[in-house]
Amino acid sequence: MKPEEIIMAPIVTEKSNDLLQEGKYTFKVNKKATKVEIANAVEKLFEVKVIKVNTMHVNGKKKRVGYHVGRTSDWKKAIVTIDTNPSETTYLAKGGKTTKVTKKYKDSIEAFMGA
Hints:
Blueprint: H1 3-6, E1 7-10, H2 14-19, E2 24-29, H3 35-46, E3 50-58, E4 62-65, E5 68-71, E6 75-82, E7 90-92, E8 98-100
Antiparallel strand pairs: 1-2, 2-6, 3-6, 4-5, 7-8
């Protein structure tokens, strides 16, 4: 799946706005997406470093229009924790040389508040 198909929309509520200070962002995601796919999609779309992904299934509600009773569709929600203080990381490469990761990551998602 493409990252645009995985991340459907941001969820902006009072609780999700309180979690922004902790670096946690809430998204409506595809029901078939896994945690790894969600993390890769957020990293690719928003250029941030994802630390953790929590997912949950949200059951649809019963709705009534006149005499007819139906249900809204079930959906999946993901709470993504990003690294708010990205720093350079070093690791050992072939030959025992230490190398640094030079990729720049953002410390927040600016497009989240514009939704």
